[in-house]
Design goal:
Elements: H1 57-65, H2 69-80, H3 84-97, E1 105-111, H4 117-130, E2 135-141, H5 154-157, H6 159-162, E3 167-173, H7 178-194, E4 199-203, H8 210-215, E5 220-226, H9 238-243, E6 246-250, H10 257-271, E7 284-287, H11 296-312, H12 315-342, H13 344-358, H14 364-377
Helix pairs in contact: 1-3, 2-3, 2-7, 4-11, 13-14
Amino acid sequence: MKLKIVSSQNPMKKENRHIENDPGYKGLKVNSGIDQPPSVNPKSVGKMVKKRAFLSIEEYVDGILAGNRAILSRAVTLVESIKPGHQELAQEIILRCLPHSGKSLRIGITGVPGAGKSTFIEALGKHITSQQGKLAVLAIDPSSERSKGSILGDKTRMEELANDSNAYIRPSPSAGSLGGVARKTRETVILCEAAGFNNIFIETVGVGQSETAVHSMVDFFLLLQIAGAGDELQGIKRGIMEMADGIVINKADGSNIEKAELAQRQFANAIHLFPPSPSGWAPRVMKCSSVTLNGIEDVWKMVADYVSFVHQNGFFDTKRNQQAKYWMYESINENLKTSFYQHPHVKNMIKQVEDAVLNKKMSSFVAANKLLKAYFKKR
């Protein structure tokens, strides 16, 4: 059977574009389908959409101080950017907003996976906004170690709070760099305070190193726990429990109430074994249900009692000053690290030195000193 080959110079008719429609094939017929639309809308040809230019520093600052969320979000994006130009602009905005910050209550919230942090934050957040308070939730989202991507699903998990006019939710990816994210989170706190949010929640990645960084930027540190998941004290690092100003047993509802009460007693007994808090405050252990809202108001009262206590003994201002000093040095360390790895001479040498270490031609310490000498010599 000889088939007719159709060339591009002598195309078939529209209905015979498919080779199966050649007369040599008996009983076969393939419809031609429909013509595909153009990839570009013909009506938009010649109409180039200009990319929105950056606002001026004055426009950013004025918008933030006016409580404009769109401008606040754009400013936070600048803070999170790694581009030098964006960072320079962000630092100037932060400097202008600094005199308008510091008037909020900063609360760190952490807990084991499955403790219901998002549900708890939404329940407590709605309680705050119902009393005319303004709340900003800064959630540090864990990033994949492989892809460096994050789900950033906090707005989905806190849908009701996300639609509240007195609340602002901003998830940020950890991107594998906890130190950098912690610094950027602290800078974001300044912008949110300048925008008029008088309560700031910082939700951490989970039980681990992130707690130490978050503890150094908040006034009240809350550890969220659940009952009925085995030994309630198992897997909780002593350091984290020592940092906690309050422990809340979540999901105390239904058949879980008795287990929550047992866990409450266990934690209360455990924290009495720890050294006294520098603030002089005796951490409390409470239980609540983020679903039925039982105990939510009591948790907020505990926070208010703590704030009143540390204001009276002067620890509130002392802690804020210590944190400002801590973050000054942390910023120096972060900037030095960035400057080192971005230095052109270090970039040129680092692969060669790394290969020498891997091939056992140079020790790790000698390699590090060689790179540091190159960095300081070429400055």
